[in-house]
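for the recovery benchmark. tokens below, seq after
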């Protein structure tokens, strides 16, 4: 991980996980084109940069349209006190690449982040190649640029191929057209937009239900009664305890709306803990 005590103005820095050329890097460039993007080794490192004030935002992937949720970030959510202030959808064009002079017929192993491998599973099998898990898509590109390995190609972005001087063997290597990753932008300050009728807002929060029968069903009842659209509900264990479950949820509502306040009041009756992560404008991508 690079030295993070930068001379740049921290209010113009966005941190991300991965090597330069990662899809998180592309998301930073597309969302904050005039800002400096700083790469970190882990999601925790990116979030800590914001917590320390060394970066203003952290760009974190949470789910992919093909491979599902990014498991690691849900472990970090309960450890950070940052707020979600924005969402961004990044189209993913996976490219299969190798060192110059390597042909497609020579490839017997394909390396990348497990998420990217999952998103290209059918195409990997079509080449009769074996998966090789690596910590990062751009890191995989950097690895073969620095360590030529016979028979190894990697899945990464066009930007990574350009940065590390690699040859693209196949473009659009992902199995599904329209493969897209959703990112959340985290900040130390809550930046809740002013509620306006007619705008579409997303509110993200976490909660833990009481250990009583039908607690989740009852906790969610208020959202159904108030006509609030639930967009995402994820569950994960708390501290390895099979009897304690934490939930992450996205709903289509503003925190300050009367319907949302009524639903949260009912949620509180059946929950031990509710933590609002943030309210933000829905990305235009949701309209497509």
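predicted aa per position
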């Amino acid at each position: 991980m690079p030295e993070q005590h930068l001379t740049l103005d921290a209010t113009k820095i966005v941190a991300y996980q991965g090597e330069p050329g990662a899809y998180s890097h592309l998301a930073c460039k597309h969302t904050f084109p005039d800002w400096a993007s700083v790469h970190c080794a882990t999601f925790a490192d990116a979030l800590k940069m914001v917590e320390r004030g060394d970066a203003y935002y952290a760009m974190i992937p949470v789910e992919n349209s093909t491979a599902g949720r990014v498991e690691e970030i849900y472990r970090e959510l309960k450890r950070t006190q940052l707020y979600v202030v924005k969402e961004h959808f990044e189209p993913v064009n996976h490219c299969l690449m190798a060192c110059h002079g390597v042909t497609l017929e020579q490839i017997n192993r394909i390396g990348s982040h497990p998420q990217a491998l999952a998103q290209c599973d059918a195409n990997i099998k079509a080449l009769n190649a074996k998966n090789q898990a690596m910590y990062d898509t751009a890191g995989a590109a950097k690895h073969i640029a620095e360590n030529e390995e016979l028979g190894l190609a990697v899945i990464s972005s066009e930007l990574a191929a350009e940065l590390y001087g690699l040859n693209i063997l196949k473009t659009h290597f992902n199995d599904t057209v329209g493969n897209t990753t959703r990112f959340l932008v985290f900040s130390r300050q809550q930046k809740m937009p002013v509620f306006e009728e007619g705008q579409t807002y997303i509110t993200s929060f976490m909660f833990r239900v009481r250990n009583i029968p039908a607690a989740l069903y009852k906790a969610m009842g208020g959202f159904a009664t108030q006509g609030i659209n639930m967009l995402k509900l994820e569950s994960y264990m708390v501290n390895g305890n099979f009897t304690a479950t934490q939930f992450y949820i996205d709903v289509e509502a503003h925190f300050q709306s009367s319907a949302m306040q009524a639903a949260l009041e009912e949620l509180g009756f059946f929950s031990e803990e509710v933590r609002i992560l943030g309210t933000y404008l829905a990305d235009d991508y949701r309209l497509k």
